[in-house]
Amino acid sequence: MSERGKMTAGQLYDPGDAELAAERRRAQELMRDYNATIVGDTAREAILDALLGSRGKACALRAPLYVDYGWNVHLEAGVFLNYGCVLLDVCPIRIGAGTQVGPMVQILTADHPRDAATRATGLEFGRPVTIGRDCWIGGGALILPGVTVGDGAVIGAGAVVTRDVAAAATVAGNPARPLHRAP
């Protein structure tokens, strides 16, 4: 299996592989081009189409935007990403229709072995992140590898999401926990 195949399957892979390095360079060139645009520039749509895996209608992505590969990012219709979002997409990142993502949010699928000996080999792995429809993610939130966020969930600004978030739940804090409101 290729290193790309291992990576997208969530297995240990070598990020220094020549094919992966070329894919990251391609993404960096497209990010550079996109991040130099402003709203209304006619080149924006074509750049995003070349960069991202899929993008629904009426998505709005504010530059700058940062990805590892781009082709592992899948956005449904009406997704909004504010300034400075980081999408480390070694595994798929899927964001549902109508979800709004605040500035400086990081969605990470990239991960590293916990034991020092394996980590010293330079191998990495990843786990996909799925965010449902009509979610709201506050500025500076961090969503870690393997997390699923249910439809209609709210993630407070600055939250560090280490576990799945139920549909319609509101979570905040570090680590993110459900907020309980008095009746």
TrEMBL record:
GO molecular function: acetyltransferase activity; O-acyltransferase activity
Gene3D superfamilies assigned: Hexapeptide repeat proteins
Alphabetical keyword list: Acyltransferase, Nodulation, Repeat, Transferase
Cellular component GO terms, alphabetical: cytosol
Domain Maltose/galactoside acetyltransferase: 4-57
Function of the molecule: Acetyltransferase implicated in the O-acetylation of Nod factors.
PANTHER family (alphabetical): ACETYLTRANSFERASE C18B11.09C-RELATED, SIALIC ACID SYNTHASE-RELATED
Entry similarity comment: Belongs to the transferase hexapeptide repeat family.
Protein name: Nodulation protein L
Source species of the chain: Salipiger mucosus DSM 16094
